[in-house]
Design a protein that fits this description.
The complex is a heterotrimer of chains A (about 350), B (about 160) and C (about 750). Chain A has about 350 residues and is an alpha+beta fold. Among the domains of chain A are: about 5-55, Uridine Diphospho-n-acetylenolpyruvylglucosamine Reductase, domain 2 (2-Layer Sandwich); about 225-325, Enolase-like, domain 1 (2-Layer Sandwich). Helix content of chain A is about 30%, strand content about 20%. In chain A, the strands form 3 sheets. A 5-stranded antiparallel β-sheet of chain A has the order 4-5-8-6-7. A 4-stranded antiparallel β-sheet of chain A has the order 9-10-11-12, with helices on both faces. A 3-stranded parallel β-sheet of chain A has the order 1-3-2, covered by helices on one side. Chain A is globular and about 55 Å long. Chain B is an alpha+beta fold. In chain B, about 30% of the residues lie in helices and about 15% in strands. Chain B contains 5 helices and 5 strands. In chain B, helix 2 (about 90-100) crosses helix 5 (about 145-155). The N and C termini of chain B lie far apart (about 45 Å). Chain C is an alpha+beta fold and about 750 residues long. Chain C folds into 3 domains: about 25-135 and about 190-280, Aldehyde Oxidoreductase, domain 3, CATH 3.90.1170; about 145-190 and about 285-445 and about 600-745, Aldehyde oxidase/xanthine dehydrogenase, molybdopterin binding domain (Aldehyde Oxidoreductase, domain 4), CATH 3.30.365.10; about 450-590, 2-Layer Sandwich (Aldehyde Oxidoreductase, domain 4). Classes of the chains: A alpha+beta (about 350), B alpha+beta (about 160), C alpha+beta (about 750). Chains in contact: A-B, A-C, B-C. The interface of A and B includes residues 2, 38 and 238 of A. Chain B: Keywords: 2Fe-2S, Iron, Iron-sulfur, Metal-binding, Oxidoreductase. Chain B: GO terms for molecular function: 2 iron, 2 sulfur cluster binding; metal ion binding; oxidoreductase activity, acting on the aldehyde or oxo group of donors.
């Protein structure tokens, strides 16, 4: 950790002023990721701007369109346990509770969750080449130990994955991200928020420096009847997903009116393929149909020496989670497999 | 950029008010251990990966290692040293001793603070849920069984805050 | 008041209150005045030389007091021998900051000392090193052709090489009707005690130091510091009252001790050096191993031939060996055996003993091989063990001092419900889960080291015992107090076991599950001596009721000396002390194993683990849903703390079988998951029903107390039992640990 300055801001305008166009001035909210990155010297800061004192963005509020706005500064725990979220968006609640630990969820904020950085071993070790940390230095993971890495959407520059669980559910729910900045407010569709690595793996998302997330809007449709979040990992809890799946189904009897499927742990962003969801429209909710949808989602998937297993695993996880969504009460703590 | 801007930070820790002049890079964990000599809160990884540094800030269990002290100005902090009241152990402390819920003892303060936070949250109903919501606290000695036994006993017996 | 005898009672840990209130202080928690903080800098290359060091930016920081590198370190002892600790393997010991050579990635190459922790850490990041890199090797498997026989040295005494061949293995194996063969590989593991290594050095002036050190051996650290820095032995005091876990990592002084002492002596200041979690992966580990086994049996299931060869990893400078391949012949009476063990020297730090070193890795292979043999024979795996049960040690022909393994098998099988098992793999199911039952045997040595204890009866009639041992979470303090309580007839509250201090009488480091037997025997010896002295003084009192009474007619009970025939005729210790008008009565006594007697016996602890796993049919996820481990370890002093030791070991077994591994990137020559987020140990949610049974094993030969030690044995059988259960569930033999669930897809 370098010796940085610290300032508080009570609104976005103050924060933007404090950021002052210096990319080495950074925002801190929950601190669970940036403070860690600072300790590892993965990042350094001239100044941390604390946005916790913001007067706004601390609440979960209903929207006129029947949706809900999640304040950017509401903690992950308060979001997951909010009665409206629990009843209307239980998929989001389950996904959040599958991430990190209770302590971290008590600290981490909704806005921060979107902006957390990858957990790639090589990204965290400042003494190894990593294009995300040091553009142009090379990717150590491609030829290294890549068990936790991407199978979809990666590039030859970076095979890191985005580690969030919450965002997998937000992607499935078609959330939108409310942003404010020096040039005013804007809204991004969730699918447009995070980026693929391409030639610019050092840029995780489309939030520009100086911009701040103020909230996340959930549309009215919450898939509260048929939903499931499944997380597969190397221990039962407190570890990142090797593969996770968020599934929401709108059923008419056994026929699927609408399906949403998003994957975590497989790409540089939550992975959604609408063609697969379109395929499921009007079909029976069966293992076979989920398998066919999985094949569409996983088209073009490419593994490496240590993560090839993610391709068949992801397929099986999509199928299982489809079946779990038919019986959401079967879900277990930690989003472990059930049925 | 170098800075020597210390920030005066008010913390109420275990009922006592402190005013600390700290640089922003001092974690709440190091402030407690090095500046207030409250070494009961443990540093097991310093990176949010073990739970040994768990304390209660304004009643909620958080990781003091990933918390900057300056960010908690005006907060009420309870550490393991503040759990027993007037020499009387908290029911969970007693249950930990009775169930031999520790060996080396290094994760214990974090387990207990986390356990108290967990009980207060009231979200865990079954043994499986208690184990899940306590999984942010690692125990290398392998005292999991005693820890969860102790928590279940206190949860079912009540009498905790 | 507890009732005596205390031995055998489930007494809660006597230090419990300190541990649950946060008042227990560990090595890095002594906030002595004017403390300086050290932060270590580690090599970022794997092999080569440091060619230049630029410390300017670091030195320029306000608060930086000093920076030590090989270029400016104060002079220390020159000879290897002076650096060699009590657990040093044969070879050339690593000397921190000795020269510019880099022997492994993460090697400590500098120490920054600053006024506060944050400044030291930041300054450490600003030092720039230039290196000349050399080619390195860090992978075991690609370098098996470089295997060599381990060098011999002092440490070989505790870790003898494999026994010579018996019979004719090749011939017996080739002609056997039933045979199996397999290869087993084990990942690197790191101990990762939750407390990170720390030394707080208090500079007392004139070459005198008081050191709060994280170690499993206070005297080991004291010797190391005195030898390396040329100090008088008595001027170095090492204190370790609380140790936040060790698991073997503290058997050798770690480099933070060297660094903190060096800085303290040079700066004449109090200095603390605490390692960070990544640095916890830079000084020793359980080595990677690869093992090849071939077992054969006759048609009735008698094991006739056993071949076990193993290759372990060591550093380029020391030959660290484990007892890896010698175990099967201590269990199974095959006539034809062939055991071989070699090492490959790699550009990594020297491995260091980690809980049940060698035993847990070797027995995983042996007991999986036995399971395969059982299937080949179409025999129940438990029946195969019973069929080949040997009351004597087949490898030496000597009887065991005691061996209640059969009870372990039978009691654990009964409690587990082994007879409900359908032997067909994949035949048992529960919903979407395949259910598997597996079992395995455990064996571990029963060590006893020499130990010395001083006992004092105070004028209040209370007993104080002194010994240098640590209590790394084992319950040592509690069990020692219990042993003493019974021997002298005092309540636990009236006894103080004063330990964790190199100034106290001798104890070996705390390893090998040996301390209860070692220090425990010395306590019995010294208290007997103390009782003699007390009685002698009591007899000398005017009008003493014990004058002319024979020793055997007198008992020590309830804090008093009494006549056996009439316990009302008693004199309390307190009264004795008042009447003789002396401040205290002291005794000091050494105890050690009875080598002459024990040379005619083999000695071992045994265990049997029975495990149920559930494996998700499609997803492969593995859950250890239940496990029962029965342990035969002689007399159990405290069933509560002993049970915790075994439960903890069982969780270590789950971890070794399914979770933990240090990932080595052989391209970079370094460990990539040097943190607790990606080095996976089980969380609470991974742990389900665990049961412990202590077999009733009376051992009148091993030592006076009949103790064998329980720190490691509970781990030994678990990994094989889990792997065998996974086979039973899925029909898949996965011989590489840890077994990640994707291997079952």
């Amino acid at each position: 950790m370098n010796n940085f300055a610290y300032a508080k801001a009570t609104n976005a305008a103050q924060a933007i002023e404090q950021l002052n166009g210096n990319t080495q001035n950074k925002i801190v909210a929950g601190g669970t990721n940036i403070n860690d990155l600072l300790k590892y010297f993965v990042t350094q800061a001239d100044k941390l701007v604390d946005i916790n004192p913001f007067i706004d963005n601390h609440a979960i509020t209903p929207l006129e369109n029947g949706g809900v706005r999640l304040g950017a500064l509401v903690t992950n725990a308060d979001t997951a346990y909010n009665p409206v979220i629990e009843s209307k968006y239980p998929l989001l609640s389950k996904a959040i509770l599958a991430g990190a630990s209770a302590q971290i969820r008590n600290m981490a904020t909704n806005g921060g969750n979107l902006n957390q950085r990858t957990r790639c071993y090589y990204f965290y070790d400042v003494n190894t080449p990593c294009n995300k940390r040091e553009p142009g230095s090379g990717c150590s993971a491609i030829k290294g130990y890549n068990r936790i890495h991407a199978i979809l959407g990666q590039s030859e520059n970076c095979i890191a994955v985005f580690p969030s669980d919450m965002c997998v559910a937000l992607a499935a729910l078609n959330a939108t991200v409310n942003i404010t900045g020096p040039d005013g407010d804007r809204v991004l569709a969730f699918a447009d928020y995070h980026r693929l690595p391409g030639d610019t793996p050092h840029i995780d998302n489309n939030l520009k420096h100086g911009e701040i997330i103020t909230g996340i809007d959930l549309p009215a449709k919450g898939f509260e009847k048929n939903y499931s979040y499944l997380k597969l990992r190397d221990r039962a809890s407190y570890s990142f997903a090797l593969v996770s799946v968020a599934t929401g189904l709108d059923l008419d009897g056994t026929i699927i009116n609408e399906a949403r499927i998003a994957l975590g742990g497989v790409a540089h962003k939550p992975w959604r393929v609408t063609a697969a969801e379109d395929f499921l429209k009007g079909k029976e909710a069966t293992q076979d149909n989920f398998a066919a949808a999985a094949d569409i989602i996983l088209q073009g998937a490419q593994g490496y020496e240590y993560n090839n297993f993610k391709i068949p695993l992801a397929k099986r996880a999509i199928i299982r989670n489809g079946m779990m969504a038919l019986n959401p009460d079967s879900q277990r703590p930690g989003a472990q497999p059930s049925l | 950029m170098e800075t020597n801007n210390t920030h005066t930070t008010s913390l109420r820790v275990n009922g006592t008010d402190y005013r600390l002049d700290v640089l922003p890079w001092v974690s709440l964990l190091d402030a407690l251990r090095e500046k207030l000599d409250l070494t009961g809160t443990k540093k097991g990884c310093d990176h949010g990966q073990c739970g040994a540094c768990t304390v209660l800030v304004d009643g909620k269990r958080v990781l003091s290692c990933l918390t900057l002290a300056v960010m908690k100005d005006g907060s009420d902090v309870t550490t393991i040293e503040g759990i027993a009241k007037n020499q009387e152990l908290h029911p969970l402390q007693k249950a930990f001793i009775e169930h031999d819920a520790f060996q080396c003892g290094y994760c214990t303060p974090g387990q207990i603070c986390s356990g108290i936070g967990m009980l207060k949250e009231g979200k865990a109903h079954t043994r499986e849920e208690v184990a899940e919501l306590m999984s942010g606290n690692l125990c290398r000695c392998g005292a999991s069984k005693g820890i969860i036994d102790a928590l279940m006993e206190v949860k079912e017996g009540g009498g905790y805050e | 008041m507890t009732k005596l005898p205390s031995v055998g009672q489930p007494v809660s840990r006597l230090e419990g209150r300190q541990k649950v209130t946060g008042s227990a202080k560990y090595a890095g928690e002594y906030n002595v005045p004017n403390l300086l903080y050290g932060y270590v800098v580690n090599s970022t290359i794997t092999k080569g030389k440091i060619t230049a060091i630029d410390t300017a930016a670091a030195k320029a920081l306000k608060g930086v007091e000093a920076i030590f590198t090989h270029q400016n370190r104060p002079s220390t002892a020159w000879f290897d021998m002076q650096y060699a600790d009590m657990d040093a393997p044969p070879g050339t010991v690593f000397k921190p900051l000795h020269d510019n050579k880099i022997k492994f990635n993460g090697q400590p190459i500098a120490l920054v000392v600053a006024e506060d922790f944050e400044t030291a850490r930041y300054a450490a990041s600003l030092i720039k090193f230039e290196y000349e890199e050399e080619a390195f090797i860090t992978g075991l498997i690609p370098n098996l052709d470089k295997a060599h026989e381990p060098k011999k040295g002092l440490a070989t005494m505790l870790k003898p090489p494999p026994p010579p061949p018996t019979g004719d293995f090749e011939k017996a194996y080739n002609s056997a009707p039933v045979k199996v063969a397999a290869q087993y590989t084990h990942a690197t593991e790191h101990h990762n005690p939750l407390e990170m290594y720390a030394s707080t050095v208090v500079y007392e002036g004139k070459g005198k130091l008081t050191i709060y050190d994280k170690t499993q051996g206070t005297i080991n650290s004291q010797l190391f510091v005195a030898n390396v820095f040329g100090l008088h032995f008595k001027d170095v005091r090492v204190l370790s009252p609380f140790v936040g876990g060790g698991f073997g990592s503290g058997l050798r002084p770690q480099y933070q001790l060297f660094m903190a002492v060096m800085a303290s002596l040079e700066l004449k200041r109090n200095v603390r050096v605490t390692l960070d979690r990544a640095q916890m992966f830079t000084f020793g580990h359980r080595p990677q191993t690869i093992q090849n086994l071939k077992f054969a049996a006759d048609a009735e299931g008698n094991v006739t031939a056993m071949n076990h060869t193993g290759v372990g990893e060591t550093s380029s400078y020391e030959d660290y060996a484990e007892i890896l391949v010698s175990w099967s012949h201590m269990l199974y009476p095959a006539k034809n055996t062939l055991f071989e063990y070699d090492l490959v020297s790699l550009d990594l730090p020297t491995p260091i003993d980690m809980r049940a070193p060698g035993g847990v890795s070797g027995m995983h292979a042996i007991e999986c091989m036995m399971d395969e043999l059982a299937y080949e024979l179409k025999m129940d795996p438990l029946q195969l063990r019973l069929k080949n049960y040997s009351e004597t040690d087949p490898s030496t022909g000597k009887p065991f001092t005691s061996k209640a393994l059969k009870q372990c098998y039978l009691e654990a099988a009964e409690k587990f419900g082994w007879n409900e098992r359908n032997p067909e793999p994949g035949s048992m199911q529960r919903g979407n889960k395949l259910v598997g039952y597996g079992m395995a045997t455990g064996i571990w040595d029963a060590y006893q080291f020499p130990a010395r204890v001083k006992a004092i009866l105070t004028k209040e009639g209370k007993l104080i015992l002194h010994n240098a041992t640590t209590d790394i979470g084992t319950g040592t303090m509690t069990v020692m107090t219990q042993i003493a309580a019974d021997e002298i007839g005092l309540q636990l509250e009236d006894i103080t076991f004063d330990y964790g201090d190199s100034k106290k009488p001798f104890s070996m480091f705390q390893g090998g599950s040996a301390i209860t037997a070692s220090t425990g025997a010395a306590i019995v010896a010294v208290v007997k001596e103390l009782k003699k002295k007390i009685l002698k003084k009591a007899r000398g009192i005017d009008g003493s009721p014990f004058k002319g009474i024979k020793d055997e007619d007198i008992i020590f009970k309830d804090g008093a000396i009494a006549l056996k025939s009439d316990t009302n005729l008693a004199l309390s210790f307190k009264d004795v002390m008042a009447l003789i008008k002396e401040p205290e009565i002291k005794a000091k006594k050494m105890a050690g194993p009875d080598i002459l007697k024990l040379k005619n016996y083999s000695k071992a602890t045994h265990s049997a683990s029975f495990v149920e796993v559930e494996v998700d049919k499609e997803l492969g996820t593995i859950t250890v849903t239940r496990a029962v481990t029965a342990v035969a370890a002689g007399r159990i002093i405290n069933p509560k703390t002993a049970r915790s030791q075994v439960l903890g070991s069982m969780i270590w077994g789950i971890s070794k079988a399914l979770h933990e591994e240090t990932i080595l990137d052989e391209n970079l020559g370094k460990y990539m998951n040097a943190n607790l987020g990606e080095y996976h140990i089980p969380v609470h949610a991974d742990i389900h029903e665990l049961d412990v049974i202590f077999a009733d094993e009376k051992d009148e030969l091993i030592n006076e107390l009949g103790i064998k030690g329980v720190g490691e044995i509970g781990l030994v059988a678990m990994p094989a039992a889990i792997a065998n259960a996974i086979y039973h569930a899925t029909g898949k033999r996965i011989n590489t640990l840890p077994i990640h669930f994707d291997k079952l897809l």
